[in-house]
# Entry
Amino acid sequence: MIDRRSVLIGLTTSALLSRCALAEVSPPRSEVLEALAKAFVDAGTEGTFAAYDVDSYRVIVSDTSRSGEAKLPASTFKVANSLIALETGVVADPDKDVFKWDGVTRPIEAWNRDHTMRTAIAASAVPVYQEIARRIGAERMQRFVDLLDYGNHDIGGGIDQFWLTGALRIDPIQQIDFLDRLRRGVLPISERNQTLVRDILPVTKVGDSIIRAKSGLLGAEIGKPSLGWLVGWVEKGNARTVFAMNMDCREARHIAMRATLTQDCLRDIGAI
# Structure
């Protein structure tokens, strides 16, 4: 088991690793590839990219500052929320339990219909996951956020708002740690429920690579996007790379660029 700070020794003192190690066999090596930051500059914005090459135990970051800055997770928290929903029994089956549309018309059309958890995570339907969080309740939510060692553990700001406008914060390295534990199936959650959440993650195929990832867009639910996330992992043959990217969404075009910029960075490090 490695110390929370060890992954970025010599790179940054602000990023923290979770208590659960990214890898159990060998301490990770860390590397800054500042060339990765060029993608954000060329796009006219600021952002950060971090990746963990599972086979080589190598952590790669685009910078030594923002890669360790904790921010609101926005809809990337839907991954943890899904695990907690299944583990508490709030959702028994991600394909059969239906959340009825409340009839409120919202600016994102895909939200204005009934959803299962599988379709809700694909559409990143905030109202569905807000209802899920309310059904989980603050006490159980806090217990599981602590158990998962997710970000700063702070669910202050409202049970259906804490990941959108509240106190929860997570940095890219913590995102990678959490997702790698899910990928390996070693979270303190039942094997069944980890398998189900891995299965409902949206999938993108790029050449011979498969990307399982969740996006996040801060302010999407109020029509004022400001920060974009994309977090997940790549499967290329037997190789696995876990990643986290966030960027300032200063223009409408930046929303769609979350995927393209992430893929550019993954391509630059040979992950796809």
Notes: The longest strand covers residues 209-218. Residues 252-268 form the longest helix (17 residues). The radius of gyration is 17 Å. The domain at 6-268 is CATH 3.40.710.10 (Beta-lactamase).
